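Recall the central idea of this unit: under ordinary conditions, the amino acid sequence of a chain determines the structure it adopts. In this exercise we apply that idea directly, starting from the sequence alone.
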Amino acid sequence: MDHEQNLSWLAREYDESCAVAEKARIKLARAIRGAAEDGVRQVDVVHATGYTREQVRRIVNSEDPRFAHSRRQPPWQEADDDEHG
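Accordingly, the structure predicted from this sequence is:
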């Protein structure tokens, strides 16, 4: 296999891997939002995913339609709003 063919093959493999990773990222974000809506504590989501509290908060509050869930606030956000508002 020459360099051009090898590079072309690797580029396609990379693109396919990115597509798979994006689908997994969306599924995880939907699961995080669903867990929040079901009352799962933010700390438990953090421990289960390895994400930071800020990452979880951004996912839950995201306007991204791919993460489609209702916009009801999770319990930990209501507590945060009470403390800071």
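Residues 9-84 form one domain.
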